[in-house]
Amino acid sequence: MNLKLKLIALAGGILFSFSSVKAQTTDQTLSPSRLAAAQQMLIALGIDKQFGTIVTNQIDVASNQVPDDKKVAFKKVMNTFMGKYFTWDLLKDKMAAIYANEFTEDELKQITIFYNSPVGQKVGQKLPSLTQRAMMVGQEAVTAHKDELQKMMEDEFAQKTDPPTVKELVSPAPKKPASKAATKH
Fold first, then answer.
1. In Å, how far are 5, 10, 79, 96 from 37, measured between CA atoms?
2. Is residue 149 a part of any domain in this protein?
3. By Cβ atoms counted within 10 A, which residue in 58, 75, 157, 175 is the most buried?
4. What is the pLDDT of residues 98-115, one digit of tens each?
5. Is residue 165 part of a domain?
6. C-alpha closest to that of 112 among 50, 45, 30
7. Percent of the chain, pLDDT > 70?
8. 184 part of a folded domain
9. Which DSSP string corresponds to the chain?
10. pTM above 0.70?
11. What is the pLDDT of residues 111-140, one digit of tens each?
């Protein structure tokens, strides 16, 4: 697999790993007070202050898969891209909507009370480190079988005439409608 394809796949992987912040569409209309309660809960958790650190940690972990001579450039590109499109200020409303869709306004307020408590503050402070350590466990699991993964990627991409784009790696291709064959009646 050539270096360009590896870097594209790695960048796609990083973006895919952040896909959980994409708001789910529902039929439910969220009230402004419920969205505000969700945002306050995220702030009590400290996500607003930790968001940049979480992104930087993700990029640092991902850069371990990049050859040393490309690492600085990879980090520069990813930091520039993420700084442009993946910041707390840009995503806080969508992130709040995710939580507002899952919890009632009262539940969000109770969660906020917890995160403002001493134990909740401790959870909030330790969560980025715990998340990073958990990601390392996952990375180690993939690394242990990287030869198999690389072979699978090479086999799959060898069947295609064009290498995958970041879009293909991040979001699944839309399903094409089944062709309607003409039938005789």
1. 42, 35, 30, 8
2. no
3. 58
4. 999 999 999 999 999 999
5. no
6. 45
7. 71
8. no
9. --HHHHHHHHHHHHHHHTGGGSPPP-SPPPPHHHHHHHHHHHHHHTHHHHHHHHHHHHHHHHHTTS-HHHHHHHHHHHHHHHHHH--HHHHHHHHHHHHHHHS-HHHHHHHHHHHHSHHHHHHHHHHHHHHHHHHHHHHHHHHHTHHHHHHHHHHHHHTSSSPPPHHHHHSPPPPPPPP------
10. no
11. 999 999 999 999 888 887 888 899 889 888
Q: How many domains does the chain have?
A: 1
Say if 159 falls within a structural domain: no
Do the beta carbons of residue 122 and residue 69 sit within 8 Å? no
Structural domain span for residue 8: 3-21+31-143
Asked if 46 and 98 count as a contact pair (C-beta separation under 8 A), the reply is: no
